[in-house]
TrEMBL record:
SUPFAM superfamilies: GlnB-like. Keywords: Signal. The lineage of its organism: Eukaryota, Metazoa, Chordata, Craniata, Vertebrata. GO terms for molecular function: copper ion binding. GO terms for biological process: response to metal ion. Belongs to the CutA family. It comes from the Eukaryota. This is Protein CutA. Pfam families: CutA1. Residues 1-16 form the signal peptide. Homotrimer.
Amino acid sequence: VVTLSLLMYPVLRSLALQLHSAITGSYVAGTHSIAFINCLNEQIAKDIARAIMDKKLAACVNILPKSLALYFWKGELEETTEILLLVKTRTSKIGELSNYVRSIHPFEIPEIISLPIDQGNPLYLKWIEESVPRD
């Protein structure tokens, strides 16, 4: 019984938080995330952003202008310009988003990282919720 309780704790906690959120209308921190994806140029960024939106993996994708990137690749210091995508989505979609982007991205190892959204405009967070279908 103790082992089963420990194994079920994350699921039960998640359900309790969702129920509390539904009853009180409060936001549960971490329900949504922002993913960062780097791209070689603006056309690739637009193509990936549109593909993400077509798959309904995000409520919104911002395409940020060129930035300078310095990084080590295969032992050498590289310096390039990149375009950054900011992807707003459900945290539960991050795995699917990451897998999909890796399948279409031209980089051998694309940057796909995410951070949970702790707080924000409740109406905006509700809009993300409504825009991205549940699993």
